[in-house]
Amino acid sequence: MITVEQVVRHQDYQAISVHPDTTVAESARIMTDNQWDMVVVCSDTGQVAGVVSWQDIMRAITEISGDISSLKVSQLLTVDPITCSVEDDVHDVLHVMAQHHFHHMPVVKNGHLAGMVRQSDILVTLLEESDMDKRAALIANLKYL
Questions:
Q1: Which among 82, 100, 108, 143 would be 20 to 30 A from 38, CA to CA?
Q2: What does DSSP say about strands 112-118 and 104-109: parallel, antiparallel, or unpaired?
Q3: pLDDT at 140 over 90
Q4: How far apart are alpha carbons 90 and 123 in whole angstroms?
Q5: Residue 78, SS3?
């Protein structure tokens, strides 16, 4: 079994988090600069409070009249987001990500942000760890992601 921890420890980037008081404009800039679909919102103690995604921002634009750039992310965040643990099997995580159309998923350990995992990181790890027959099957199934 390949765990999320095995994927995360080889990454050359860190998870992105913001404070609940961060503005929507600043969060959007952080997402754009880092090419992420979402940011994790963490409390002062590092506990994961939720996530704010591009979809959350787009929903706010359509539902709230006026400028949303100065809103705090705490007003838009998705509480109790779908996350994974460092101990989770990457096959299960990849399945959840495909099911929910996620490209990124927060990795949580003891309620705190431990990292972020991308679909592409999992796929690369699976390809590197598999033999030629398994690689062919994995590549054949990429069209479903």
A1: 143
A2: antiparallel
A3: no
A4: 9
A5: strand
Work out the angle between the directed axes of helices 24-34 and 54-63 (0-180°, nearest 10).
140
- Sheet strands (E) in the chain: 17-18, 38-42, 48-53, 84-85, 104-109, 112-118
- Under DSSP, the state recorded for 100 is H
Task: Tell me the per-residue pLDDT of 59-81, one tens digit each, with 9 for 90 and over.
Answer: 998 888 788 889 999 999 999 89
Neighbours of 124 (CB within 10 A): 13
Distance CA 58, CA 78 (A): 13
User: Amino acid identity, residue 71?
Assistant: L
| Structure token digits, residue 47 | 């506990």
Integer Cα distance of 145 and 98 in angstroms: 5
Closest CA to 85 of 114, 115, 107: 107
3-state secondary structure of 110: coil
